[in-house]
Design a protein that fits this description.
This protein is an alpha/beta fold. About 35% of the residues lie in helices and about 20% in strands. It contains five helices and seven strands. The structure holds adenosine-5'-diphosphate (ADP). The site of adenosine-5'-diphosphate has 20 residues, from α1.
Length: about 180
């Protein structure tokens, strides 16, 4: 299952690199609290965006788990980067609620700014240690719960880095429908 539609909004699952989503307005960064470059998704996004991104993002920090802030995308092929701080599994609790907040707060920002398309990585599933199966269920549930209220957002894409992560999301999507 790679595409789920609710009203005028589509939820897509795709294997890929979050820095190469040139057909979406906003990409989401799996950020750190201080909105610095770091590794993983954040490292890749800051490298591709150039040093101006960090200059814009760090004054907006620190942020708390579940929170999201928006900046420009600089040299990335997008308009915006929405920086979400996922929970560190087993430290930031309740981890499922905090992870769901990331997705929902990012979508709220899109609605406020009139952003029509957004791509998310699998927040918290790398350095922050959230088990991928559990994270996929929380992420997809949170997005689907939000979809009926969306008026501006037309495309939500989950960008999964590997085959295994894509499969996990496809299986979860089937379960949730
Ligand atoms: P966190 O600190 O929130 O756990 P990470 O950046 O360490 O975030 O990883 C989140 C997920 O994103 C992991 O599953 C990782 O494999 C994946 N990932 C890493 N680089 C990229 C990329 N360039 N595009 C999409 N996903 C990526």
């Amino acid at each position: 299952m790679d595409r789920y539609i609710y009203g005028d909004t589509a939820l897509e699952l795709r294997k890929g690199d979050i820095t190469r989503q040139d057909d979406v307005e906003a990409i989401v960064n799996a950020a750190n609290a201080h909105l610095r470059q770091g590794g993983g998704v954040a490292g890749a996004i800051h490298r591709a965006a150039g040093p101006e991104l960090e200059k814009e993002s760090t004054p907006l920090g620190p942020i708390k788990p579940g929170e999201a802030v928006i900046t420009g995308a600089h040299q990335l092929p997008n308009e915006y980067v929405i920086h979400c701080l996922g929970p560190v599994y087993d430290r930031d609790v309740p981890h499922d609620q905090l992870l769901a907040n990331c997705y929902q707060n990012a979508l709220d920002i899109c609605e406020k700014k009139g952003i029509k398309s957004i791509a998310f990585p699998a927040i918290s599933t790398g350095a922050f240690g959230y088990p991928p199966e559990e994270a996929a269920e929380v992420a997809l549930r949170a997005i689907m719960k939000k979809m009926p209220s969306l008026k501006k957002v037309e495309l939500i894409r989950m960008v999964l880095f590997g085959d295994k992560d894509l499969e996990i999301h496809q299986e979860n999507m089937k379960k949730l429908m």
